[in-house]
Amino acid sequence: MLLVVAAAVVGRWLLAAGVGIFLGWPPLLAEWLPHVGPGTPAVVVVAVAVAAWGPSVAGRAAWGPLLCTAWAAASAWTLGLALVDGWQRGVVERLSSSQEYLHDVPRVTSVASMLREFGDHILTTQVDPAQIWFWATHVGGHPPGAFLLFVWLDRLGLGGGGPAGMVVILSGASACVAVAVTLRGLGQEDLARRVLPFSVLFPGAVWVGVSADGLFAAWLAWGVALVAVAASLRGVRADLVALAAGLLLGYALYLSYGLVLGGLFPVAVLAATRRWRVLAGALGGVVIVVAAFTAAGFWWVEGYEHVRVIYAASIAASRPYSYFVWADLAAVAFALGPAVVAALLRIPVLPRPAAFLVLAALGAIVLADVSGMSKAEVERIWLPFAVWTVVACGALSHPRRWLVAQAVLALAVNHLLLTVW
Fold first, then answer.
1. Start-to-end C-alpha separation, the chain
2. Is 29 helix (H, G, I), strand (E, B) or coil?
3. pLDDT tens readout for residues 344-376
4. For residue 175, which of 47, 74, 82 has the smallest C-alpha distance?
5. Per-residue pLDDT tens for 234-287?
6. What are phi and psi of 418, to 5 degrees?
7. Complete DSSP assignment for 316-350
8. CA 369, CA 375: separation in Å to the nearest integer?
9. Cis ω before 27 (30° cut-off from 0)
10. Which of 16, 35, 64, 204 is found 20 to 30 A from 144 (Cα to Cα)?
């Protein structure tokens, strides 16, 4: 709380001094706008239901139906939070603005040509008359994997902000299931059951619905889950699942450059299980994806170097590192919630596999923070790492009280502030 208050006070002082931090409500990218919407009744009902009955249901329900119920509840929670801002503003417009992925989908007449020429339209400093257009901010700022997913959605008839937003919400909400599957694969089913209600009422769902980073979080989480499942198997089945995990993790590298830090999670799983044979299959899958994108004409390293150039010339240039290197931690605290902050003190009492996952999440956040490549907006950018910190909540006593605290924070953020995502 002190960190958040300090970030707010210093942030407002910087704004008053004319420093371009480009935040309407420091440390979040948001503006003060108390409001309610059609999603308000739904999220209140979900919050009450999960806080009241979530722990007991999670403790006794059959595993398969429990995961389906958790996904449904997390989807309702995420969609409801988005609908607090209304269908148009809260869902449709999130991915269809001039800076977002859907804006550039009509440019793609050939996927092969798009991948081959993708790097030619990243640098906005080019002066070649033949290169007079550039990708929208989020398209050019990421590898082409994420954009390619939205292009495929459009080809399948799911174009437009509404369908794309719902795909992101439903996929992003599945991260809670992936975390539970990971823990069970590591032999920690009891812990997975205790963690699941906290994953459902994850405050970061405010930004999962609707930002592509919510999709990234789920994609990475399922890749890690398959690594854990592979580590629990033997023989050919283990090798095939490991290969599938590698394909997901390899594609994650082409969703966001920052997801290279997601490699800490499969390493944590393998370090906890010592099933290093799984590494060979997973690396094989990663190599296949990297080779495919490279053969198609996109070289990851070159794309990253281009993004570093445009990032240095963007609003990041006026956002002071000395402020954001600690204020970013205050921002991500809104996505984590008070239960996670309290639970971090209990990492030493967690089972080793769970502790490794939480430490991997904290390590990824710290590395992303000190890199200076995430100045502000980390409440959504760090979602792929934040979803794993919830594992620590399995060690909390009085879970219902902490679930209420998580829900109250998310409800307060979404009803008092208008977030950009």
1. 23
2. coil
3. 999 999 999 999 999 999 999 999 999 999 899
4. 74
5. 999 999 999 999 999 999 999 999 999 999 999 999 999 999 999 999 999 999
6. -105, 110
7. GGTS-HHHHHHHHHHHHHHHH-HHHHHHGGGGGGS
8. 8
9. yes
10. 204
Q: What is the DSSP string of 350-364?
A: S-HHHHHHHHHHHHH
CA distance 414 to 418: 7
3-state secondary structure at position 136: coil
Token pair 């398959």: residue: 226
* Crossing angle of the two packed helices 189-200 and 63-83, in degrees rounded to 10: 20
Sole residue written with tokens 């008839």: 157
Tokens of 233: 């198997």
- Tokens standing for residue 77: 């929670």
Residue-level pLDDT at 132 = 67
DSSP assignment of 79-107 equals: HHHHHTT-HIIIIITTTTSTTSHHHHGGG
- Over 245-308, what HEC string results? HHHHHHHHCCCCHHHHHHHHHHHHHHHHHCCCHHHHHHHHHHHHHHHHHHHHCCCHHHHHHHHH
Are 176 and 196 contacting, i.e. CB atoms less than 8 angstroms apart?
yes
In angstroms, the CA 369 to CA 365 distance is: 6
Q: What is the pLDDT of residues 129-148, one digit of tens each?
A: 555 688 999 999 999 999 99
As a whole number of angstroms, the distance between CA 136 and CA 20 comes to 22
Q: Count other C-beta atoms under 10 Å from residue 7's C-beta.
A: 23
How many angstroms from the chain centroid is the CA of residue 391? 15
Helix, strand, coil percentages for the chain (3-state, nearest 5) = 75, 0, 25
DSSP state of 28: B
Contact of 119 with 257, CB cutoff 8 Å: no
User: By the 8 A CB rule, do 120 and 189 touch?
Assistant: no
Q: Roughly what angle, to the nearest 10 degrees, separates helices 161-173 and 63-83?
A: 140
For the chain, percent of residues with pLDDT exceeding 70: 98
**Taking Cα atoms as reference points, which of 282, 164, 172, 149 lies closest to residue 219?**
172
